[in-house]
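ok here's Secreted protein, seq below lol
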Amino acid sequence: MKSLIENRFGLLALVLVALGALYGVAYASRPAPVVHTPPKPVRALMESLTTVCPSPGGSRVSVVTPPGAQGQGSATVGEITETPAPDEGAPPQDAPGKDAPKKGAKKGAGDKAEKPPAALEQPGVLWQQDMKAGTAPLAVAGTGSMAAGLEAAQTARADAGSQRGLASTRCVEPGADAWFVGPGPAAAAMTLYLTNADSAPANVEVMIYAGEGPVLSDRGSGMVLQPGEHRTVKLSDLAPSPLVMAVEVSTSGGRVAAAIKAVLGKAEGVDWLPVAAPPSTQVVVPGIPGMAGLRELYVTAPGEQDTVVQVKAVLKDGSYALKNKETVDVLAGSTSTFDLSTGIGGQPAALVLTSDVPIIAGMKITGTGLSQDVAFTAGASPIDLGSVVADNRVTRKQESRLVLSAPFAAATLKVQLVPKRGAVPEPVEVKVPAARTKEVKLAAPPGGESGFSVVIQPQPGSGPVYGGRVLVEDTPSGQLITDQPLAPATIWALVPPTADSPSAVLP
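and the structure came out like this:
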């Protein structure tokens, strides 16, 4: 009996030893683990693009596609007209009913003859036209080679009255969400322009974040824009009391092109608010020109947490926190404003804002003189894929400047000017050291005396670049100024990579 038990334990020990040996061999000879690398998006040339100029009446509209595009393509510039809803009860057109207009009757607004759209067919040629007052929003649409980098802008200029100043805006692509930050209706006449350039209805909601917190308004929700419909909304009807605010325009269905114009009053300036970068824990506000005047920072924390925002200025001689303004406090759901004139006034700059919760940021730039004008910049994305500015001017009184910042690493860029007439000159190389801002005054190329466009392309190995184009005009009563943050060019689209998969053919 004893020997039987000993043999059983001995057999068990041998089995355990054998299993351990097998496990050791399997562990030592196992294949290396496969590291799963998610596929990176790939670049594809833009083949179709539509942008909307929100209120071009009385403005000069500039449209350009950068030179170098290959293949066929075309672009058009035309007024957006509302698509009439079918009326099932209406009599056929060849059998007028009793309500048909009589001979000689005045045509209604919807009966005016439509002006055929302008056609553009050649990349590298700047198209410009002064628009008559009352012109409806314009759709700038490109296909094929004319879509890659298609850019448009509208710029208005007035010498006197409540609209005195330079007021320009980049024509924007329709989208499902857009942010703006700037003065509130208690400080300026703020008008929201909404345009539905698509063929489907858009359900629009407007949310306002004032200095006192979120503002909820029934008038700002549930707006439906039919295809081709455009509408203006006075923001004082939604929230009359804010001195500062951020505005979110979103859609629960469809897309809309949104723009906001700020009129501060006679001798106080006018301009459009640029679209701000979406909420993020790090925001770069670029394009602050090196000229005297007030600099007012706006910061919004749209979430449910208060935050302390760290502020760092990127100047021509370095990057550092501003003395006594290293941090700013912002309450949850509200917009705060801070005077940075003594910190960055007179210097070309960008601001890097860092927070532990997502924020929105922008800045008001005030010119000098007895009669003031204002410009606005806002948080922007880096121009990794390049950038295009359609409207630039250099005359005896007007000048155009690029304010370029490389807040994190050095950058090298190629700057190419596209004149309204004549050959496109060779690009010029511009270097921006790390943690520096460089201001470049543009000289009109041959054939560009009446206007020219700028194409900016970061070179391989460059760090993230942010910037803005500033247009300034000196007048006896004071400076006129407008600013346009550089937006990533629409030359390329980042698309998910494709691969063979059974799911492509399986139900």
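fwiw The first helix runs from residue 2 to 28. kinda neat tbh
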